[in-house]
Amino acid sequence: MAAQRRGGGFLWAALLSGLALNVLDLRRPAFLAVETHQKPVQSRRSFAWAVGAGLLSEPAWAEEEAAPKKKKERPPETLIAEGFESKAIPLNGRWSIVFGKKIAGKPVYKKDGESYFLMTNDCGQLQIDTEKKATCDGSIGIQKESGWVIDGKASGFKVRPETKEDANKNQGISASKLNELVNEDLAKFERQSSVSTFRGTMDDDDEVLEVDDLPANTFLSLRYGDTRKQAPFRAGESFAFPPSGKQPKAFTVDVFQKVASSQVSLAGISALGGSLNNVEIETLDIGSAPLKASFEASLRSFDHQEKSGASRGRNAAERAKQYMEQRGVQHFLQEMFTQLLERKPEDYLGFLADFIEQKQDEADHADRNEIDFSSEPGLGENPLPGFAAFPLPDLSKHNSIATEVLRAQPEIEQLANLRTSMGVSLAQCIKPGVDCPGHPMVKVAGAFAGDGECYSLFQQFFDPLVASLSLKGSMRSGADGATHPLDGDVTKISGDQIDPSGSYVVYAVLEARRNVEGIRMPVSCSREERREVEKLLSSARLRGTYLPLAGSKSWQKRSGGMAAFQEERLRKVGMLLTEPDSKLKLAAGFGRHWPDARGVMVCDAPGVFVWCNEEDHYRFFARQEGSELKELYERMAKTMSAVSEAATMAGRAFASSNKLGWLTTCPSRVGAALRVTLTLRIPLLAKAVDLPALCECLHLHCDSSSSAISGNLWQIHSLSSLGVSEVEVMNEMIQGCKLLVGLEQRLEQKEPIFDSLPGLGTELPFSPLPCNGPCPEAMPDLAGCRSLVAASLRVNPKLYLQYRSLATSAGTHLGVCLRPAFDRDVGRQKTASGLVAGDEECLDTFRELFVAVHGQLQALQASWEPPRGSCKTLELTSSCQWVKIEMRRNVSGLRFAPSCSTDERREVERLLVRCMENQKAVTGQYYPLAFSQSYPLMPNGINQQEERHLVRLGKLFPAPHALGELSSGVGREWPDARGAFLSDGTADDGCETLAWVNQADHLRLRCFVPGGDMQLAYRKVQGMADNIETELNSLCSRGYSRHAKFGYVTVDSLHLGSGMQLTAAMQLPELSQLEDFPKLCARLKLTQTWHDDCYELSSYPAPELKAEDLLARTLQSLRILVTCHDFRIKPLKRPFPREGFAGRHRCPNGQWSPSSS
Fold first, then answer.
1. Is residue 325 domain-shared with residue 414, that is, in the same domain?
2. What is residue 308's predicted lDDT score, i.e. its pLDDT?
3. Is residue 1141 situated within a structural domain?
4. Which end of the chain is more exposed for a tag (fewer CB within 10 A), N or C?
């Protein structure tokens, strides 16, 4: 744009496109050199270069001869650097370092070329090319050795001004070619910066020459001084501005686009005014609705004399002064500028921001009414009233794990008088569990450590507590003198991508806990100790801001705590720690002296912050969207390292022990003290499998609470960190979640996923025992394991040492048989053996283990035996809805599911299916599971929809999901060679018979009969079993696997003997309401489960009984229940005797009194 005086005013022209340059020989295109004009441009040609091209400059030699003398040497506009190599291709065979304009106060450097831009960074370095970096001490080194250093070495090149001879060596280009290069560079610049740039050149006519790519209905507005002019944006448009006393140094250009337009009639508007309502203004966009507006006209006096610019300025100043006086702004600004001029800070913007934030804090504190927590129970000086010292009260109705340990070991009260070196007693540790009975369905720890020494001094209490809380149950560290692994080396963390597409991992959170050694933990520390912890954090060399909680006066730099707006910001993003509100935490002492010395360290590292003096001294958090766990852990590790260094400088360290690793207040967090959480979007996988069970197999935990699941999002956590290092926790999480994402992707492609699931593919879930080879010399820890074989091994651990290296002739080792014993869920809900057989020889090779399990099983049963035939024979049909009998059998000579090969499993399927098709007692069809490829007539099994339908009907079995089943190996290579033989319809007597192949045992027969005829069901299932064995014998000279002592051999040792289980669905509304109904069922050797408005009563495992004896005993027990119910019994007058009713030959009326009615 140019300005010329015409008629006493200025006429400006907006030039938007094209370069009208009369230049015939130019060497350098636009954007390849950044010009700096040190003096006013005098020639028309130079002016066109500076404004039209925008970034072109005169060559240094153009004014070489006439250059004026300068007092101080300044760098020329273009320098030549010679004598060094670069991988980038130089333009015109040379390099240039161009000194140009400054951006944000720093010089910008640009190298000739199209792809490489050079500029200084925060460290004062210069990027020479894609690899080399250079720094300069300030001496440019013209015609002498320079101050440049490249890659840490002194440079071997010199810098000199560009000369006329240099220019002559390069071929010039025409003005038209220059235009093309300029336009290309400008277009590229627009794309990169997303800024619309209007380009133009000057012409003597002073008008808009060209307009490129403008949208329709565009208006141009120019403001020069206090005057604004507006006109349609088109070539040739001129703008005239009146003269003013002082010429502005710049003008403002705005471009507007018309949205709507209409002509409005003034009918109805008189000389005194009037109104126009709901006037429709047609929009220029045909797809938009008309706009509506109303107008009001009124009579007013009008001063035809236009106010001068000075008058308007005085009015604006008056209004500004009035505003500042009303709002009190003037004093604020005066104080701010006074301090600014006194201190003269280098970072003036940062100073102004801090000043404003400080004033905001002061205003917030003045307006905020602080809450007084000192009078709140558990939040003031004194602990929450409750348990204070031994002896213990009655804990029979308490449900925490701590009270379970106290009930199991009454001798723990001997520790009552002990104190740690810092004065913490056991009573302080167990107070929350004693004060809060809890709920039987929600198990909490119920105890917290008062300092690190508690774990060693009260080891008799804390060891079983920690073992019960640890989901892995690993107490190996320290038990044999080994040291708990502590390894936070970031380089050892896997770099595998969990979610390369970014479609499945929504959010990631890391949390680590640390406590300072020599200072009591938050449940028992004093006010001074807590303040020392805060002082260590605030003094750490961390880039960030420490914000004490509102009301905290412990930190002098921010006495009174954070401001209200800061508190609200932290609350919105989930970074604010709040006072404890649960009775458990208040009883523990977490809220004492609230909010003194509590706060949040908000680090500059993205997503990293630290809670001070909440449950532990420090809780470190790192959060971000996406799945880059390694990068996230590295940021958190640097923060922990900085706090650790601050503690070391103060002569302290983080609390840890060789046995338990990092020590935390809650016993559930000791070890690596690290928790990793990923939020995954895996809806298909969650529907296809039991996600919590799958996660457990991967050493992960899926939070199934409603607060943790939102629609298709699932929160996946790392398991207990005891016995593993931080690196192991991270790698397990990365590999596990990577597998979950991969399974979701396979389901999206409608592919089977069983081969990738632990326990359903070729790999089994984690276990301390191997599948092949000898077991470890030291028996793994069985704390918290509830199976019968686990109880036997705790009583007699020599059995493990006796058999650990033995194997059967078929290659089955002890590890295969004992793997379920080390799963804590086995035996939690119902009686479980924890011992499986890999082949029939296991019962001889590991004989004493099976005998021990049977001994445990008999010890659990009541000694009373129901009398046979002494009660009046009653039919069960009046109270019984249906009966069901299951019979398990395995083919002799072939290994069982935990250890069989693929060929053996397929041979079992081939033999059994052929036998069932040949026998005539029951006709039907075999249905292989979906995706099973072993059955020739259905090479890919039945379809998935049909399979799901049969599973819902109970005619087909789903994949195993319990960790005990998966770890035993019964689900390996699922669903290969597995299926069900279903009978054709229902028999005339109402029986439904089916056979499952390779579910757990080789063969599982089932007969379902409506009503109560259990003997009919037994005859049906026994007859089918006999027919199949006859066919097996004739087909391959095989039969069912039997043992001389244990009877029929089954995979689960509970079903040895008859291999049979009998179930009846009974409706006993009055009897089942009795409090002692479960005890009555146990005396009758029945297990009871409520399902579909009935009690399903099943026979208790009886390895010592034959099938006929088990049937007779079960029938008699069921008839006793029917008899008692028919008498309309009352609640028991006295508890069951220990010896039961042996020797009585009538209904036990001495225990149940008939109703008077």
1. no
2. 57
3. no
4. C
Do 324 and 438 belong to one domain? no
Q: Do 42 and 180 lie in a common domain?
A: yes
User: How distant, in Å, are the alpha carbons of 115, 475, 652, 661, 873 from that of 726?
Assistant: 44, 17, 22, 10, 66
List of the chain residues with pLDDT < 50:
1-131, 138, 140-144, 157, 159-160, 166-167, 169-175, 178, 182, 189, 192-213, 287, 304, 306, 472-480, 705-708, 869-874, 1129-1157
Full domain range(s) for residue 103: 18-193
- What was the pLDDT predicted at 405? 92
Residues 450, 359 share a domain:
no
Q: Does a structural domain hold residue 32?
A: yes
The residues, any chain, with a CB within 8 Å of residue 41's CB and separated by 6 or more, are: 47, 50
> Same structural domain for residues 189 and 330?
no
* pLDDT tens-digit series, residues 625-664: 988 999 999 999 999 999 999 999 999 999 999 999 999 9
Same domain, residue pair 38 and 116: yes
Q: Report CA-CA distances (Å) from 150 to 125, 756, 1006.
A: 10, 52, 83
Provide the 10 A C-beta neighbour count for residue 361: 18
Q: Report the number of distinct structural domains present in the chain.
A: 4
Last residue of a domain, which of 193, 221, 240? Answer: 193
**Contacts for 254 with CB less than 8 Å, ≥ 6 apart:** 220, 221, 222, 223
Kindly state whether residue 565 falls inside one of the protein's structural domains.
Answer: no
How distant, in Å, are the alpha carbons of 6, 211, 345, 603 from that of 355? 50, 47, 12, 20
- Integer Cα distance of 1014 and 673 in angstroms: 56
Positive or negative CA dihedral for 358, 360, 363, 367? negative
Pairwise CA distance, residues 631 & 891, whole Å: 55
Check which CATH number belongs to the domain holding 996 and give it: 3.30.590.10
Q: Confirm whether 377 is domain-assigned.
A: no
d(CA 647, CA 538): 11
Q: What is the CATH number of the domain that holds 441?
A: 1.10.135.10
Give the strand pairing for 96-103 and 106-110: antiparallel
Query: What's the pLDDT at 289?
Result: 67
pTM for this model (two decimals): 0.59
**How does DSSP classify residue 173?**
B
pLDDT of residue 865: 56
Distance CA 838, CA 846 (A): 11
187-221 confidence digits (pLDDT tens)? 554 554 333 323 332 233 334 444 444 566 778 88
Instruction: State the Cα–Cα distance between residues 66 and 72, nearest whole angstrom.
Output: 17
HSE of 667 in the Cβ direction (CA atoms, 13 Å)? 31
- CA 410, CA 890: separation in Å to the nearest integer? 47
Question: Do 932 and 1052 have their domain in common?
Answer: yes
480-496: pLDDT as tens digits: 456 888 999 999 999 89
End-of-domain residue from the set 193, 225, 255 = 193
Query: What's the one-letter identity of residue 255?
Result: V
* 192 Cβ contact list (under 8 Å, min separation 6): none
1002 lies in the same domain as 903? yes
